[in-house]
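Dear support,

We are seeing what looks like truncated structure output for some complexes. This example has two components. We would appreciate it if you could run it in full and send us the complete token output so we can diff it against ours.
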Amino acid sequence: MSLAIKNLTKVFGQQKAVDSISFSVSPGEIVGFLGPNGAGKSTTMKIATGYLPPDSGSVEICGIDVAESPTKIKGLIGYLPEHNPLYLDMYVTEYLIFAGRLNGIKGPELKQRILDIIHLCGLSDEQHKKLESLSKGYRQRVGLAQALIHEPPVLILDEPTSGLDPNQILEIRKVIRDISHNKTVLFSSHIMQEVEALCDRVVVINKGKIVADDQLSRLLQNRAGIVLIVEFKEEAPLSQLREIEGVSEIVRLSANKCKIISQPGLDIRAALFRFAADTNLSLVELKMEEYSMEVIFKELTGAESKL
Amino acid sequence: MIQIFKKEFNSFLNSLIAYVVIATFLSSIGLMMWVFPETSVLDYGYSEMDTLFTVGPYMLIFLVPAITMRSFAEEKKMGTLEFLLTKPLHDMDVILGKFFAGFVLVMVSIIPTIVYYYSIFLLGEPQGNVDTAGVIGSYIGLVLLGGIFCTLGILASSLSPNQIVSFIIGALLCLLFYSGFDTISTLVTSGTLALNIKQLGILYHYDSISRIDR
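Here is the complete output from our reference environment:
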């Protein structure tokens, strides 16, 4: 296991920020760590990187206990904290050299690494600028570059795309995807599209507890029904539609149009078609909307699930 | 450790702190040694450097906390402490790196005053009539004092994420440790207890190493 968290608990005053959570990430896996604000994502990551001590439980990185040899594991992790700490009075290359030297990389090797990483993170045009003059998106890239400089086997990224514009989000995602093929990545987010775009697996945390830990595809299948937008030529007969097997919820959008949500794991399209044929209604539109991660997220974290 | 030292020292140079500190220290000490009549060596008439070694510590009480006030306070505020502490370093590397950066800056500002020694050496009548051994002792005392002030300043800096609070706490701690215990001891009537309290302060030992007669 590249990363194993066992019964981790952290208490701040009265509040249990993290409440005996356990999960592990195998080498080469990209895991999305999901949860609403204040769920304990950052706290878990800070403990995993050795920045905060846990109140109980343990974290192992590549089989080494974080509490026992913190210095050693810090060399194995590339960490991008939530607020992306940068020394704003440094230049981009200066900052990367500093980060590299702190990780014990020297001389020609460091030079080569910095060239590679600047290219990888798309910083070529900005490399001679001061950090304070960079835009948020480029600062985020420098933060990512800093985390990657020593080629760590484990990457921990705390909301790597927060506050970026849509183009920048796509670019950062591309960087993460490019580097992730031989690394273990744990990244936190509260943006669902991101998780859908990047992850194999998601761990959902709410109020310090894990509420789901599964393959993304399975989570989608088990938790989510499908959403259909249906339009008839005539007025939609809601009460009759409700009786079709597998329909869990119907919302009228207009006189002839409605939104039908199926029960998890059931495809009701064929049944709907038969219904239309049997009742002599003309089905003019049948559009499927994937039941997205967002709904699952709301369901799992207890927020109001209104479509 | 060496990396942190370099980074800190560079940031002193980049942010003008170093130049301002050195300029303030040297110009005020220089004015007192050579220009202001009450403390000037030329008016005093004896070939001594006592002005430097009695006024110097009080200058350092204000300058050293100004150097060190940002060391941890700013890192905390900017979140860069999280960056440093999640790198494969021991805490001691970070602390020592910051300490030596401040300490070296203090030494750099003290070193040019050796010129004063040479001037007094030449001005003495007969030439060379200076208590050289006393001056060497005083320099050792002053440099070590700068070191102590750096540690106190860094301690103060780690107590608060606000630089101004750090500066004030730092200056207060320096003053307390330098002459505070000396002052407290005058309030105590018992002779041995007073001496013991006095010995807790730095001034007692500083005077002893400088051979300054007060």
